[in-house]
UniProtKB/TrEMBL annotation:
Protein name (database record): LacI family DNA-binding transcriptional regulator
Pfam families on file: LacI, Peripla_BP_3
Keywords carried by this UniProt record: DNA-binding, Transcription, Transcription regulation
Family matches, as PANTHER family: HTH-TYPE TRANSCRIPTIONAL REGULATOR GALS, LACI-RELATED TRANSCRIPTIONAL REPRESSOR
Length: 327
């Protein structure tokens, strides 16, 4: 091929591997030779030479029941897949549900079986992000572990979105506004709880701990937290839920207790997922651009793979309130 193109073998290799350090004239000559000879790169040989696998792992440290029941995960996967569709990258979905699977993934990563890692559902004490940092594997998180996250991440403005939701309830005249949180070992849940509290404080209302229901981003968790809140504060008149799925569970409990939504209790969720559009009544919700988060994560990771020494980037995407009949 090098002889046909009239260039050296090193130039051929750089063109085939996408290096920018090739003149346009040489690139065109190699591409003509590739077309004439019908050349197809040998991926196994390329991996040996370049240490690239053309594979990315999308790691979800949750049970498959959450993966398939919560629209958030599907939207992230959709965004990542769309961004990778015009590349040669293979996307591998990896569920990590227990210590054995965590150890197996660590061994897989140490063997350099993938070029980079995307990780969603980040819990504060999960050892995997630290392992990724130590292994120097290009990595991008959906969210962060805390204020001083060293890895690249893409997040929504969770605190700002929660403040918007609670301010909307205050403008409606709601007096006893409860919240149902996600698991508080996740920064995303802490941020939404912080936004809820700051909106109340800015309105001159000290937050009440009896109006905080702890849950886990699941429908069952939303039901259990709503039942506890009604028992503690029967006259509550609004609820901000940290996810649409939990809001759907809360709605079931409110209806069973004879509370009309929104006449007796206004209800707001977070995500603006398909769930919000199919509840009865349709759910007012904070929209976070989940699919765009997936796309952006994939773009950042591709950049890190192409240039491992580049500065890590941390992006926060805007949220907005979508008003429907529940509030």
């Amino acid at each position: 091929m090098a002889a046909l193109a009239g260039v050296g073998r090193g130039t051929v290799s750089r063109v085939i591997n996408g290096s920018p350090r090739v003149s346009e004239r040489a690139r065109a000559a190699v591409e003509r030779a590739v077309a004439e000879l019908g050349y197809v790169p040998n991926r196994a040989a390329r991996t040996l030479v370049t240490s690239r696998t053309d594979a990315i792992a999308l790691v979800v440290p949750e049970a498959e029941t959450r993966l398939f029941s919560e629209p958030y995960f599907g939207d992230i996967i959709s965004g990542v897949s769309a961004e990778l569709s015009d590349t040669d990258m293979q996307l591998l979905l990896v569920l990590v549900r227990n210590q054995r699977e965590r150890d197996r993934l660590s061994a897989y990563l140490r063997a350099q079986r993938v070029d980079g890692v995307l990780m969603v559902s980040v819990h504060r004490d999960d050892p995997l992000p630290t392992a990724l940092e130590e292994l120097r594997i290009p990595s991008v998180l959906a969210g962060r572990r805390g204020d001083h996250e060293p890895l690249s991440y893409v997040a929504a403005d969770n605190a700002g979105g929660a403040r918007m939701a609670v301010r909307h309830l205050l403008r409606r005249g709601c007096e006893r506004i409860a919240t149902i949180t996600g698991p508080l070992d996740m920064e995303v849940a802490q941020a939404r709880l912080s936004g809820y509290r700051s909106a109340l404080e800015q309105d001159g209302r000290p937050p009440r701990e009896d109006l905080v229901g702890l849950a886990d981003f699941t429908e069952a968790g939303g039901r259990a937290a709503m039942a506890e809140l009604l028992e503690r504060v029967p006259d509550l008149d609004a609820v901000f839920c940290a996810s649409d799925v939990m809001a759907a569970g809360a709605l079931q409990v409110l209806r069973a207790a004879g509370r009309r939504v929104p006449q007796d209790v206004a209800l707001i969720g977070f995500d603006d997922s398909i769930v919000a559009r199919h509840t009865d009544p349709p759910l007012t919700s904070v929209r976070q651009p989940i699919e765009e988060m997936g796309r952006t994560m994939a773009r950042l990771l591709l950049d890190e793979i192409a240039d491992p020494g580049r500065t890590r980037r941390q992006l926060v995407l805007a949220t907005e309130l979508v008003v429907r009949q529940s509030a």
